[in-house]
Write a sequence for this structure.
């Protein structure tokens, strides 16, 4: 581990904890826009892990997760370096928007370019100042506006090291997710950096169960990497079961109208089950929304108004759905403790 680490021109020594404000651009009135970063360096050698949130500016559960992880980690106990970036897309965060001012999606702009669009420049700075200095990464997300996601990890599980990391996060549902061009996860993979994407909850909301899930998962990964000692209770307990989805697909509205859902997030459904009933404004005509496969609902729309073809329920399929459902129920009970 290098004796000196420099981010945004700031030097962080071994055993030091420092806040860094990484300048990325300026507003029309010349007000500087900075990405807030906190770096915690242990004195002993170890991995360098980054945890980022709000790459989509309206996905704020991750901001609170990052805050709580920072409160739990002490430099004198840490091996290696932890870099936490609670707000990456500061433009979107301040505007309650997923996007940057030019309507570009930052998570489709990596690895970026120093001479490109605002999104490309921000992505380039983030790669240069943060990602390439790290050995591992966790990126925190939620569902889009008016869509909720079950806490889950999406990762390239074909890679053995990433798979171990994903299992250590501890959520019951893992999605072997293909990499998207322009995503942070794809850019990190090209640099040989194993990375997880945590999804949970919906945009513009703080949801306590999701936040607890994210904090617990991040701390578990930190401990599994040997950056902090494992808890004694954690060492004595058998590893919790996690399940990798075989596939996932969206059930779309067969008709336009208002709907009432009959199944909730995390529910086990069987092919042919009624997920919701769509009706006209008078309630005289009803249309059933049917599960097209058996599985677990890992995402759904929160708006009870749909046009024909709108995505309504995201269902993941597993080899043994009942076991997954039991694991989710046990995990949810643990979040209440």
């Amino acid at each position: 581990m290098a004796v000196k680490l420099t981010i945004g021109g700031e030097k962080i020594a071994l055993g030091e904890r420092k806040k860094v404000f990484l300048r990325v651009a300026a507003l029309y009135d010349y007000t500087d826009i900075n990405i807030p970063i906190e770096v915690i360096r242990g004195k002993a050698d170890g991995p360098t892990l980054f945890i980022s949130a709000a790459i989509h500016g309206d996905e704020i559960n991750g901001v609170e997760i990052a805050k709580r992880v920072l409160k739990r980690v002490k430099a004198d106990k840490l091996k290696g370096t932890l870099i936490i970036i609670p707000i990456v897309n500061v433009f979107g965060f301040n505007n309650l928007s997923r996007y940057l001012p030019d309507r570009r999606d930052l998570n489709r702009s990596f690895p970026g370019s120093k001479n490109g669009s605002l999104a490309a420049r921000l992505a380039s700075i983030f790669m240069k100042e943060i990602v390439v200095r790290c050995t591992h990464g966790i990126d925190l997300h939620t569902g889009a506006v008016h869509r909720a996601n079950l806490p889950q990890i999406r990762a390239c599980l074909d890679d053995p090291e990433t798979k171990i990391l994903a299992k250590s996060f501890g959520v019951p549902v893992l999605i072997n997710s293909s990499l998207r061009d322009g995503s942070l996860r794809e850019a990190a993979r090209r640099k040989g950096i194993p990375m997880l994407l945590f999804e949970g909850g919906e945009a513009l909301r703080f949801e306590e169960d999701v936040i607890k899930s994210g904090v617990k998962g991040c701390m578990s990964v930190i401990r599994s990497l040997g950056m902090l000692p494992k808890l004694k209770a954690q060492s004595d307990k058998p590893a919790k079961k996690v399940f990798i989805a075989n596939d996932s697909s969206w059930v779309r509205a067969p008709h336009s109208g208002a709907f009432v859902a009959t199944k909730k997030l995390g529910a086990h459904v069987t092919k042919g089950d009624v997920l919701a009933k769509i009706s006209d404004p008078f309630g005289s005509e009803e249309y059933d929304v049917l599960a097209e496969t058996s599985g677990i609902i890992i995402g759904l729309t929160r708006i009870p108004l749909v046009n024909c073809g709108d995505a309504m329920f995201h269902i993941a399929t597993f080899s043994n759905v009942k076991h997954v459902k039991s694991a989710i129920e046990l995990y949810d009970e643990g979040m209440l403790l």
Observations:
- The domain at 4-243 is CATH 3.40.630.10 (Aminopeptidase).
- Helices lie at 61-72, 90-94, 118-129, 160-169, 184-190, 208-224, 232-236, 321-336.
